[in-house]
Amino acid sequence: MEKLWTTIEYLILGLVQGITEPIPISSSGHLVLFRELLGIETEGLSFEIFVNFASLLAIFIIYRKDIARLITNSYLYVFKKDESQKNDFLFIVYLVVGTIPVGVIGVLFGDAIGKALSDPVVVGYTLLITAAAIWAIRNLRGRKSDGDLSMKDAIIVGLAQAVAVTPGISRSGATIVASMLVGMKQETALRFSFLLYIPVSLGTAILDIPDLVSSEAFQALLIPNIVAFITAFIATYFALKWFMNIMAKGNLKYFSYYCVVVGLLVIFLM
Known about the structure:
By secondary structure, the chain is mainly α. It has one domain (2-269). It contains twelve helices and no strands. Helix 1 packs parallel to helix 11 (222-249). The protein is globular and about 60 Å long. The two termini are 28 Å apart. Keywords: Antibiotic resistance, Cell membrane, Cell shape, Cell wall biogenesis/degradation, Hydrolase, Membrane, Peptidoglycan synthesis, Transmembrane, Transmembrane helix.
């Protein structure tokens, strides 16, 4: 019975990760809150990294055509001197540049930040920050398409992603907010945000998951971890599809309302 309940708990955590990763309400913050509510202890950031990889696979599948186009056209630009593909090559360059800030901060301070700011009350306050940021851009309609981006845009969005290392600060929210503040169209902001997520999550997974899956703690909870992974993958896929429709309709303000309500409840009740 205990093993069944543990599996159910991990299924819930996988569902929380999958639903909250693509939408701007902070997956890391919600995992902190649900672990507290369920009384689940996980060592360091290992579990988050594992279920984040499941979300990565779902996002990769959704954006597979964009990824294939960018790689193919960049090859044509670099090796075949096809100037018509320059914009796609530069888009990849900007993604690389935008990845650098969070990579540096994650390597140097990731564990310290995770431990220092994983208190539920802290998450409550950072959710309010996320709410304010989303509210600020709720009516913005940018004009920049993929080919209009600049190095400055990439650096600003990259710095925003680095700030989202803090639990409760939504990664997708921070990068979408920054993208729209520099003038990107909603579709471009969404694509840049989630393609920016891929190298960060992939790099973290390559570095940490081999050690994680071979650890005794992981093996002892093998079935619950697998359940959480599959659940996170499926939930991320459908949550991102849903969020794309929300972005197209410009209804971001509802996520701001949600973060305010949850943030205040956490501050006053936990």
